[in-house]
Amino acid sequence: MSRRTSVGIGRTRVPLGPVYGLMLLFLYFPIALLFLFSFSTNTVLTFPLRGFTVDRYREGFGDAALLEAARNSVVVGIGAASIATALGLGVSIAVSRFRFRGRLGLFALAGLPLIVPFVVLGVSLFLLFNLADLPRSLFAIAAGHTVIALPFATLILLARMGGLDPALEDAAMDLGATYPVTLRRVVLPVMVPTILSAWLTCFIVSFDEVAIALFLAGGDPTFPVFLYGQLRFAQRLPVLIAMAVTLTMLTVTLTLIAFRLGRRKE
Amino acid sequence: MLGRRGALRFLALPPYVWLAVFFLAPLLLIVAISFRPETGPIDFDDPWTFTIAQYQRILETPAYLRRLGMSVVVALVVATAATVLAYPIAYFLAFRARERAVFFLVLLLIPFAVSYLLRVMAWRLMLGGEGAINSLLEWLGVISAPLDLLIYSPVAVVVTLIYVWIPFAALPVYAALQRIERGHLEAAADLGAGPWTRFARVTVPLSLPGAVAAFFMVFIPTVGEYVTPSLVGGTEGYMYGNIIQDFFSQAASWATGAALAVIMLLLTLALVAVALRLIDVRRLAS
Q1: How far apart are CA A133 and CA A144, in angstroms?
Q2: Do A31 and B114 count as a contact with CB atoms less than 8 A apart?
Q3: Which numeric CATH code is attached to B76-238?
Q4: What ipTM was estimated for this complex?
Q5: What domains can you pick out in chain A, each with its CATH number?
Q6: pTM across the whole model
Q7: Chain B residues lying within 8 Å of A106, measured CB to CB
């Protein structure tokens, strides 16, 4: 009996394996084409692809402005990810371990940036910095990115805090540890992989973000802002794509690390 | 000695303050600015005067409202298509992939992690006048000259954005499908429900919160899009977000742009209010 049902569960007789395969093909094919293009001697986005060259990559790594933009993205990403993760950790501990007025409000507020279109947040921050007479800058971009990364940090950290037995903390405090010491010596060590996973996720959110950054970039652009600004110059395209492909390798690697860390249980 | 209550302040206060300064304050500011009269860049030393002139101007300009309608339609189509296409992917991962689920999930995460701008550029390569699709069709002899309606059109924007969002949409649906108790399906089977009935009456309703979440997680960024339309949309594919952006760059009428942005914000908040009636957020908090 149980054998029959367990075999039947979830079976709708639609061959979903091939469907999944086709979907993966659909998802990978355009990227693969672009990847091939970055090694071709073609100068515009057309077919057929002609010769093979690594000149685009050589040229890209010799382009000071491009490298500077990539460096800026790393700086903004580190700043935004660190602040968003720290704030998200605060939210997740407060929401999961305390009963207080405004608990639901704090949770809702930390998630709210998810439902504000980036263009709205971008122009709002642009106006705020103008009003405050602060220059558009990498700091402005990082501030915007902390806001949009915070919901991701909070959700990732909250899920892990929810699965962590509060009895651990009670035990530490029964043994005489103050609450801050309990957090530092008991909660944080257990949370390290999740914190790293949240940090990497926030870094990737920031590193790839362009819609908000375009409004907030001053003299020095992040890489996506630089890329967007240069895309209209057709002759620059092959080099830009080569460098974007290179940096994407970084974000793909970080995503997979974040995924691995996020899956580690106990 | 710092007690638990004292610690709470250190945990909860910084996020409140940070979001008040960099999230709530700018949103309140843009609402305030949308009621200013200026039609150029704003000098904030000028006195604050209140007028609804910006909103009147917008409501009297059918072109803006048409773009808003078009953006909503584009976002509806993209969000629906991405969710529907993501569903079988998520279903496969949750029910069919079994011990290889992690492997298949990783295969899905890779395109998701590829730079957004790069994925948009990939579709310029696909849809362009001498791009992949035109070249293939010509080589096959289906067409004799490149179709130029592929790129720089609303269709190009829709196709590109569906492509961009599919992996992202699959994640909440997958999470919802994974949470379904297998016992419910077994019970349905024991009561004589066939596979399709089980799917329609048990799986789909239980996965609905995930699907609704996926829909809105695609709809909201799409309705405010301006980057993808500017790269593949051409003049026909120009969206409401592009108009907002124009008012902060070329046209530089900040108050008008602010009013346009407030309209977009109110629209998305209204839609999310509807969504919250469909999925219970309180459950996520506890």
Answers
A1: 17
A2: yes
A3: 1.10.3720.10
A4: 0.91
A5: 17-53 (no CATH), 58-263 (1.10.3720.10)
A6: 0.91
A7: 12, 15-16
